Amino acid sequence: FGSDLEPVFRGNDLLVVGVNTTRAWRHKHGQVSRTQVERVARLLARAEPAQLRLVVVHQPAAVTRPEDRANRLRGSGHALARWSQAGADMVLGGHIHLPYVASPPGLPRPLWVVQAGTAVSDRLREAAPNSVNVLRWGRHAAAGRCSIERWDYFSAAGAFARTAVLDVTPARD
Questions:
Q1: C-alpha to C-alpha distance for 136 and 28, rounded to whole angstroms
Q2: What are the chain's domains?
């Protein structure tokens, strides 16, 4: 994967900012520091209007089930508020092998937390087969819209198939 643990990708219609949320003293739980939050916010604030603005972390920045609260990224409340204010459209995560999309309330502007399941692990959650998410934006989606697709693996067919689509409209100032 390379030596850069916080890579940034800039394309004409996409900005992706990676954040290293693992810590040597936290083998399971992640953490985002205020320094990291501000670094990401500065990058987001300089994004072009046509760019979909994604922040990628490992642990979930928001959870949908009470039993997953212990797995939530430490510092995520501050991070989501600041990144929302700076223009983030989505925060992508994984770690708990449970796919979902959530839009946390009370943020300065809307954003979506998009959690991935697991594509290849056999450590599956109940009712959550192996899966991947596909984001469609720009020329691959309706103008101003982003499609968040979930693709589940069906062992009988030996293939992934699209099982859910959520169309969202990222805010633009």
A1: 31
A2: 8-168 (3.30.750.180)
